[in-house]
Design goal:
- It is a single chain.
- The protein is α+β, with helices and mostly antiparallel strands.
- It contains 2 helices and 4 strands.
- The protein is globular, with a radius of gyration of 13 Å.
- Strands 1-2-4-3 form a 4-stranded antiparallel β-sheet, with helices on one face.
- It has a domain at 31-99: Gyrase A, domain 2 (2-Layer Sandwich).
């Protein structure tokens, strides 16, 4: 999968405490765990690892760069786009306050 040329975070990702954050809503814990595995594979591939918190019906993803004083870098934005692609392919929606 190619990196996105867009240097802005995907729509719906929020900047919180020097991190990019998105919350996804898998239909089951098993689907969420498989999504975590997919994210982990991409993270290992590019050697950039997010914080992932899986709860029933909710996966929180936090991206920041330890080597850049825990701030958001282009690597985080690229990884956010990769994660969005995985979510879209798996049919996993992102949490929305409107839903």
């Amino acid at each position: 999968m190619n990196d996105h040329p867009d240097q802005r975070p995907p729509a719906g990702w929020e900047q919180q405490d020097q991190a990019l954050v998105a919350v996804f809503t898998p239909v089951s814990f098993t689907v969420g765990a498989d999504f975590v595995r997919q994210i982990a594979e991409v993270a290992d591939e590019i050697n950039h690892h997010p914080e992932l918190t899986l709860e029933y019906g909710k996966l929180t993803v936090r991206l920041f760069s330890h080597d850049a004083d825990n701030t958001v870098t282009k690597r985080d934005i690229r990884l956010a786009h990769r994660i969005e692609d995985l979510a879209e392919q798996a049919g996993i929606p992102r949490y929305s306050a409107e839903s």
